[in-house]
Amino acid sequence: MKTVLEVLESTAKFFAGKGVESPRLNIDLLLAHVLGKKRMDLYLEFDRPLGDRELDALRGLVKRRAQGVPLQHLLGNVEFHGRLFLCDGRALIPRPETEHLVELLLKLPLPAGGRFVDVGTGTGVIALTLAAERSEARVQAVDRSPNALTLARENAEKLGLAARVEFIQGDLLAPCGAGLDLVVANLPYIPSHDIAGLSREVQHDPMMALDGGPEGLDLVARCIREAHAKLAPGGRIALEIGHDQAAAVSGLLTEAGFSSVETVADYQRRERFTFAVRL
Asked: Taking a C-beta distance cutoff of 8 angstroms, is the pair 118, 184 a contact?
């Protein structure tokens, strides 16, 4: 019968051989999930023997992770800005870059009772975090995928925020009224020809959440034009973009009539977020 430590060490080596990033962290989290414990609890139980039922449950998860199924899908959740969100194949897995975007948004001088729209909401992490942190704001979350919206609503219920966010199925800003104070969007921005080369984990995300068209900016460009028509004077747009798209996106914003166009790097020093103000 193997102990907790033996399973952690042997599986970390197995994951490393299969090309899984952060192999020890992955097995730590999977075993903690199977045992219904926190990760740090494992370090107090290294000598604990694992039973056949626990090992069988773990083996299934380990096999799927080695095949490239994302860790977040196996755990069924992802932590984002201090909250736990349900996460599965219905929507894009929230990345650390998007969490950074939200941190930047919360530092903006947004009106207390403003109207905020999260375009392409996916799991709902942006809209729900804004609603939780800005209690007087009126928040709408739009997505063209009914499956993604169902997941976002489940997260809203789980977090007690269902009454704070309006979820709308639709194409970009078409279902939204005018006079908005903030439009934020993490839209598909990967060029179509690059999709096949993405990591096996990313390949588990919905295709409509990845494919941004030939140059990666089809939806972004449309969103910029629509946002200019829907934002109130002084309203802001915030976009998460590809690391090599800042110049092109800044040009699109300027052409659409936005001012104060600014690109901010992510924690990896890649140009990742572009902000602008409607005149």
From this structure: yes
State pTM to two decimals: 0.94
DSSP string for 28-78: HHHHHHHHT--HHHHTT-TTPBPPHHHHHHHHHHHHHHHTT--HHHHHTEE
Q: Domain count of the chain?
A: 2
Q: Is residue 72 part of a domain?
A: no
Tens of pLDDT along the chain (279 residues) come to: 899 999 999 999 999 999 999 999 999 999 999 999 999 999 999 999 999 999 999 999 999 999 999 999 999 999 999 999 999 999 999 999 999 999 999 999 999 999 999 999 999 999 999 999 999 999 999 999 999 999 999 999 999 999 999 999 999 999 999 999 999 999 999 999 999 999 999 999 999 999 999 999 999 999 999 999 999 999 999 999 999 999 999 999 999 999 999 999 999 999 999 999 999
Domain shared by 156 and 26, yes or no: no
Gap between the Cα atoms of 135 and 265, Å rounded? 28
CATH number at residue 238: 3.40.50.150
